[in-house]
Amino acid sequence: MDSRRAPGPATLRHHDAVLGVLREAGFTLPMAVHAVSLIDSYVGGFVLQEANLPVAKPDDVEEVAGGILKDLPAGELPYLTEVIVHHALRPGYDHTSEFGYGLDLILDALEARRSKGPDTAA
């Protein structure tokens, strides 16, 4: 996570390279900054979520989700129950696949904004 006041040379080179790719792809300076912030926040947030999940590997989902389901108040959380029963517990479900889906949405939105032309946001 980039929370230090004096980031190292590797971090600075990384940020410069990402900004360069965005600028050379036609992003305005404000849009490039927005894009870096958005992507960095998404990646960092996903990493934090992954680090704090009680599931170490996809095979653990059934045990963890089953325990959560067992403790849910009956009938009080129908949408959460639906997610657990009809999504998380389906064969082959892997939460890590959600990362790519979210990143695709972000990249599609950034491309749509870039294609519209100059950004008016400061």
From TrEMBL:
Residue stretches making up the Tetracycline repressor TetR C-terminal domain: 3-113
Keyword Signal recorded: no
GO biological process: negative regulation of DNA-templated transcription
Residues of the signal peptide: none
SUPFAM superfamilies associated with the record: Tetracyclin repressor-like, C-terminal domain (SSF48498)
Entry-linked InterPro entries: Repressor_TetR_C, Tet_transcr_reg_TetR-rel_C_sf
Keywords: Transcription, Transcription regulation
Name recorded for this polypeptide: Tetracycline repressor TetR C-terminal domain-containing protein
